[in-house]
């Protein structure tokens, strides 16, 4: 660590590889170390102090490197005159709760679903408002490269505040759980922070929890903590069938995303979860707006319209969802990646809150989950398919040329979206960080999805 003075410059290419568009993330010991994090903490604190903040709340996941990095960050922040409140082990949405409740900026140390060698920081302003490239991260990167300006005032303090119980209590006030029957719930925490938050949030409800991989272990000994990859929910699917569970829940490493498996062990589409939660939120807030990104199932805007709400389509990415929610006052937003955003949760995402909605919906009626969700699963989908390409834009132009005479609608809100007659559509988007094209296809039947997927991939991969 340093003494709080401006340090020698760091190579810009190294810093910019770690301070990304939405967060800080890299390999510990190679890209991220205590000295680097100390300067990030100092720069973030300086920026927040100039905006009027007096304290920062900090939380961390179960990775072995997290406590040391938190200490370095806190040291840098207090040397800039801000107090640091540590909530200790936490999920990312628990940190958002703390930022909202304490009305102060926050820093969550996690690399989410990335492998054990990684760590990182998700930063937010007071009220869980995100900090991105254009709203602070570029400034932090510049100061880490050039040296963080010194502060001549008094050093801040470090205190602790365990907010887990308050977080759990607050979430339960946002969902009507009064009519819920007893359910058997299998939960795969993936050795991540779900093992910390699930007992606190669900333990007092009429649920029999069947835990799987609840031991906090940042080496992820059982499988990657990334339920978006089908390989990582295989254990949960088997466990649901073995235990006779009514539902299965899988959380990612920092437990801000939640994936659902029905009583048969079949995955429930995050789009279907979005539609279910949207319906419930519209029941509480008639006529409200619901946000969905453009590769979410068309069942979502259909259902929102049927329920008297306004469906608003956005680009893929949490920054676009959160910005649009703030601008429109939308009550809820959902993404295909199982991020779910709630106006009543400071516009931030909470997989646990989405899980409570699904549990309540299942528990207040007698149908099994597969039958309940059939109402929301109106289409078949390909899932996201990645192709490595040399020239993504050229490939998209070739796909457009091949389909333009058959297209009923074309737009370029985020990549290329082509709608065809008969409710079929697909989106082709270039990755911002890799030489990849990402394809999502939806249609009424599996055969239609397969045929359309093959046709597009024949062009993309030739």
Automatic annotation (TrEMBL):
Pfam families per the UniProt record, alphabetical: PGM_PMM_I, PGM_PMM_II, PGM_PMM_III, PGM_PMM_IV
Keywords for the protein's UniProt record, in alphabetical order: Isomerase, Magnesium, Metal-binding, Phosphoprotein
GO molecular function: intramolecular phosphotransferase activity; metal ion binding
Domain of life: Bacteria
Keyword Transcription tagged: no
Keyword Phosphoprotein belongs to the record: yes
Similarity-based family: Belongs to the phosphohexose mutase family.
Protein's UniProt name: Phosphomannomutase/phosphoglucomutase
Organism: Hoyosella rhizosphaerae
